[in-house]
Description:
Mean pLDDT: 84
Radius of gyration: 19 Å
Shape: elongated
Number of helices: 3
Low-confidence stretches: none
Structural class: mainly alpha
Largest sheet: none
Distance between the termini: 37 Å
Helix content: 55-70%
Order of helices and strands: HHH
Amino acid sequence: MSSSGHGHTPAAWTGVIISFIGFCVAGAFIVAGSAPGFWAGMVLIGLGAVVGGLMRAAGLGQEPRRSANPAARAKAQPQEG
């Protein structure tokens, strides 16, 4: 599985770390009974998705992969002959 390179980019790591921190904040404040703290954590979760998406758009994410389906690849490339 490690050869797939799934998520091994600065954009993915940054987005996940920010979202994880937001998850921890929201979880801590829901146990403490603080609604504003919970919603602050939820905002951090959304911010992680936005930051990861912006970093991906800036070129720090994974490049789109080509189709692994040989039939689809054959249709996309002209035949030599």
